[in-house]
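Intended use. Records such as the Metallo-beta-lactamase domain-containing protein entry shown here are meant for training and evaluating sequence-to-structure methods. They are not intended to support clinical decisions.
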Amino acid sequence: MVRIILTSLVLVASLTGCWGLGFGTPSPNKWPLRVFEADDYLRNHSQIFIPRRVINVGEDIYSAIGYALANMIMINGPDGIVIIDTTETMIDSWTAYEDLRNEIDDWTKPLVAIILTHFHTDHYVGTFRLLEHAETQGWNVRIFTHETTLDEMARSSVFKLYASRRGTRQFGDALVLGEELLNAGIGLESKHNDTIVNDTLVPTDTYRDNTTVQLAGLEFELMRTKGETDDQTSIWIPSKRALFCGDNLYEAFPNLY
């Protein structure tokens, strides 16, 4: 999940697509929720992700919500396009990217960079599909991560079986959507690739504590902000006064594992 904070406004930009709409918000004097209240609250929570859509959350900043667990963010810079996070599947990544591009009606600007906020699969797996298209266009795409991201991926792969079991419980992967599963909390449902993705992510640029880069005609500040993960990256665009804080901020707390 990626969040964008524009000055004092908290706006959607996440893997969960969180838009502070307040659907089904219970009265504060009724905690804990009774069973029927909790059911309504969870059903209304799905409206955050339905229908999937692209939202203009600030000047030249767009968020694709409801396409997968994670949101995909697009910054339309003067000299190109920058993407933040790419969802968990190749298909959903491409669908979100198409809709983002169509929102600005411009496929000529090159994709110059992809910034990944952290190593969780719902934030980076779709990167490979965007790189495939960029290669056909002759675009040289830089990929930014924290310097520990690849190590985190390797460490995670060691415990992949256990992590998969945990994820199945957390997101209700074995349940039927709409009947047994209302939503996955941070998104409508956890998505999976139709085929095994064998590609290995290779960042072109990494950083340690913080760094400033010029991308697509804009200045980006990348900062290590340990939170949900140790490699979490937050991105600040001074000219837009926009902060993208990854999974360090959710629509609803807590995210239970």
